[in-house]
Amino acid sequence: MLKYRLMLGVTFGIALLVMFYFDQSLSRGWPARTWSFPPGMLMAITLSLFIPFAVREMQQLLGREHVRISMRVCIAGSLLCMLWPWLEILSEMLLTHSRGVNPLAITIASWFHTVKPHYLVPTVLAGAMFGAFAMHSRDEKIEGAMASAGGSLLAIVYLGVLPSFFLPIRLTHSAGMVVSVLLMVKSADIGAYAVGRLIGRHKLIAWLSPGKTVEGFFGGLLLAAGVGGVLTHYSSEFCWWQGALAGVVLGAVGQLGDLLESLLKRDAGVKDSGQMPGFGGILDLIDSPLLAAPVAYWMLKLVHG
To answer: What tens digit of pLDDT does each residue of 155-167 get?
Structure first.
């Protein structure tokens, strides 16, 4: 199990680093430079490719509790909620730096800016709720209608709204900042797992996640703080103690995200959300970064405005 975990972990890590490298490289000079791509485009595509698989796993988890959700409604809602804030910021950037930009792109950005895009997320959530009711009523059944609507909203918020915070971080800072957030969150996961296996004695929340220990929790925070402090040497935006503090906060929130997904799996009566050797499923892989994304965004917002 550990062998597969290490192999897949290294593979995923290298693939993500390559993606972030090209995302940063290909966006240099945008929007004025010819053949440059909008910042965050490769990242948005990567996240979008994961969403159908993650929605499928969520559908299977909820299905074990006899809660039905529509794949089409949840995928469409998740994609809209995730991509719209990114498109909103891109349109503002285009209008601000419009010199030498294709007139068609400026026209699209102007239209996008006038439709009040910040109202889209509540609109999508309302539409998803009514869409869930409509899909449920096709079979002329009353039972489970509210659960279906609630499950659909859960899927869209969890898989669409939460990851949407990564794209503004990429736009307003850099791909390196997103990598830093992921490294701090995942180092807490690794530290918690390693310390828990080595010296873990006291259960953290035995009824929810028997494998997690108090020693592992604090070991994860310590490693995340160290990683956060080290990362500041490669950035002029933060001093070492800010990086260490960010590591502690994001590490704690990431482990909370892990526990939140454990709650969903416990309720469904399964150990893993999928069948990837060593990892489980897509939801098991992204549970900690998802909850950390909005926290990282607002931390950066507070520091840099």
So the answer is: 999 999 999 999 9
pLDDT of 49 > 90? The answer is yes
Distance CA 216, CA 255 (A): 10
CB–CB of 233/220 below 8 Å?
Answer: no
| Amino acid identity at 35 | W
CA distance 37 to 46: 15
The DSSP secondary-structure symbol of 91 reads: H
Query: What distance in Å separates the CA atoms of residue 220 and residue 151, rounded to the nearest whole number?
Result: 31
170 and 87 Cβ atoms separated by less than 8 Å: no
Q: What are phi and psi of 211, to 5 degrees?
A: -80, -15
Most distant CA pair in the chain, distance: 64
Hey, what are 27's tokens? 């966006």
Query: Residue 178, CB half-sphere, CA atoms under 13 Å: how many?
Result: 25
186-233 residue pLDDT tens: 999 999 999 999 998 999 998 888 889 999 999 999 999 999 999 998
What is the rounded average pLDDT of the residues 259-272? 90
